[in-house]
Amino acid sequence: MAEVHHIHNQDPNAGAEQRKAIWKTFWILLILTAVEFLIAFTVPHGLLKVTIFIVMTIVKAFYIVGEFMHLKHETKSLIWSILVPVIFVAWLILALLLEGNAIFDAVFD
Amino acid sequence: MAANVTTPGAIEPKMWMGGIEPMKASYGKLMMWFFLISDTFTFSALLVAYGTARFSFPAFSGKAEDFTFSNMYWPIPEKVYEAVPFLHGVTLPLVFVGIMTFILIASSVTMVLAVEAGHRMDRESVEKYMLWTILGGFTFLGCQAWEWSHFIHGTDTGSVMKVLQDGVWVNKTVFGANLTENQYGPPAFADFFFFITGFHGTHVFSGVILNILIFFRSATGFYDKRGSYEMVEKVGLYWHFVDLVWVFVFTFFYLV
C-alpha cells in the first residue's frame, strides 16, 4: 500500500532557494513589527493610526500564511476555500464594531 | 464509478469526479487547513466580542500623559503593559510583549526550516530545528506566565476605583486584576485579556506538545521508515497558525 520512495537528496544546495525565501520573510516580518512599535509611540491616537495598524497586520498575515504556510503556492481552489470564509469573518468584525458604536451612542449619548 | 475510472478510455476523468486530488494536497493536510479555518472562527469570535465591548465603552479622552487607571473608561494598552521581568519599577511600554512577538516569529522560522529539511529527508536538520522550535514555544509560555502573574498581582500602588458595594458607591484601592475586579480599567478588559491570551496560550501549549511528538518520532526514525516527513508539515501549519493568531492579538489587544 504505502508508496516508499526514498528521495535522499545528497545535493547540499537542494532547497537553498526556499531557505533564502524563508529568511527573507523573517526579515520582512521583523521589520514590520519594529515599524509598528515606532508608530505606536509617534503617531497620535486616531483613525489613521488604527488604519495603519490594521493594514500592517494584514500584510504580516499575508506573509505568514502565504510563505510560511505555503498557501501562496497551493492550487487556486485551496486558496479560495480558505480565503472566502475569512472575508466573511472580516465583514462580521466590521459589522459588530459598528454595532458596538451604536450601543455606545444609545447608552452614553 | 471507481471501476470506470480505472478503465482507460471508458470515461474521461474530470477534476471533481473522484480518484484524483483536485487541490493537490493530501487528506491530512487538507483536514489541517479546514480545522484551522474552524479555529479561525473561534478566535474571531473572541476578537469580535472584544471589539464590540471596546467600542461600546467610553475611551479615555484626555492626553496620554494625563492617563490614570479608572473603571469609567477603557485603558490605553501601552499604559497597562509596561513592565519587564527583572526591571522592577522601570517604565518600558510594550517592550516585553514585543520580545514575546519576536520569540514567536523566530520559532515560526525554525519550524518552516524543519519542514524544508523534511522535504530533503534530512533527519538531523529536522531534529535540530524542531528542538529550536520547542525551545521557542516554552520560552513564549514562560513569558506569558510572567505576564499573567504581573497582571494578576498588579502594580505596587494599585489604583483607586469607584465600586458598588452593598448598594453604595465606595472608593476602593484595587490591586491587580481578576474576573470581577481590575485595577487597570473596567472588569471586562481583564476578562477579555484572560480569555483571549489564555485561549491563545492553550494553543501554544498544545502546539509544543505536538512539536515534541514530531521531534520524538523523527529522532526515532519513524518518518524515515515511513518515507515521508509530511507530518512535520501538518504540525507546522498548526504552529504557524498560532503565530498568526498572536499577530492579530498583538495588534488588537496591545497596539490599537
TrEMBL record, chain A:
<keyword id="KW-1133">Transmembrane helix</keyword>
<keyword id="KW-0472">Membrane</keyword>
<dbReference type="Pfam" id="PF03626">
    <property type="entry name" value="COX4_pro"/>
</dbReference>
<protein>
    <submittedName>
        <fullName>Cytochrome C oxidase subunit IV family protein</fullName>
    </submittedName>
</protein>
<keyword id="KW-1003">Cell membrane</keyword>
<keyword id="KW-0812">Transmembrane</keyword>
<feature type="transmembrane region" description="Helical">
    <location>
        <begin position="47"/>
        <end position="66"/>
    </location>
</feature>
<dbReference type="GO" id="GO:0005886">
    <property type="term" value="C:plasma membrane"/>
</dbReference>
<feature type="transmembrane region" description="Helical">
    <location>
        <begin position="78"/>
        <end position="98"/>
    </location>
</feature>
<dbReference type="InterPro" id="IPR005171">
    <property type="entry name" value="Cyt_c_oxidase_su4_prok"/>
</dbReference>
<feature type="transmembrane region" description="Helical">
    <location>
        <begin position="21"/>
        <end position="41"/>
    </location>
</feature>
From TrEMBL, chain B:
<keyword id="KW-0812">Transmembrane</keyword>
<dbReference type="InterPro" id="IPR000298">
    <property type="entry name" value="Cyt_c_oxidase-like_su3"/>
</dbReference>
<dbReference type="InterPro" id="IPR024791">
    <property type="entry name" value="Cyt_c/ubiquinol_Oxase_su3"/>
</dbReference>
<keyword id="KW-1133">Transmembrane helix</keyword>
<feature type="transmembrane region" description="Helical">
    <location>
        <begin position="129"/>
        <end position="148"/>
    </location>
</feature>
<feature type="domain" description="Heme-copper oxidase subunit III family profile">
    <location>
        <begin position="1"/>
        <end position="256"/>
    </location>
</feature>
<protein>
    <submittedName>
        <fullName>Cytochrome oxidase subunit III</fullName>
    </submittedName>
</protein>
<dbReference type="GO" id="GO:0019646">
    <property type="term" value="P:aerobic electron transport chain"/>
</dbReference>
<feature type="transmembrane region" description="Helical">
    <location>
        <begin position="237"/>
        <end position="255"/>
    </location>
</feature>
<feature type="transmembrane region" description="Helical">
    <location>
        <begin position="192"/>
        <end position="216"/>
    </location>
</feature>
<comment type="similarity">
    <text>Belongs to the cytochrome c oxidase subunit 3 family.</text>
</comment>
<dbReference type="Pfam" id="PF00510">
    <property type="entry name" value="COX3"/>
</dbReference>
<dbReference type="InterPro" id="IPR035973">
    <property type="entry name" value="Cyt_c_oxidase_su3-like_sf"/>
</dbReference>
<keyword id="KW-1003">Cell membrane</keyword>
<keyword id="KW-0472">Membrane</keyword>
<dbReference type="GO" id="GO:0005886">
    <property type="term" value="C:plasma membrane"/>
</dbReference>
<dbReference type="GO" id="GO:0004129">
    <property type="term" value="F:cytochrome-c oxidase activity"/>
</dbReference>
<feature type="transmembrane region" description="Helical">
    <location>
        <begin position="30"/>
        <end position="53"/>
    </location>
</feature>
<dbReference type="InterPro" id="IPR013833">
    <property type="entry name" value="Cyt_c_oxidase_su3_a-hlx"/>
</dbReference>
<feature type="transmembrane region" description="Helical">
    <location>
        <begin position="94"/>
        <end position="117"/>
    </location>
</feature>
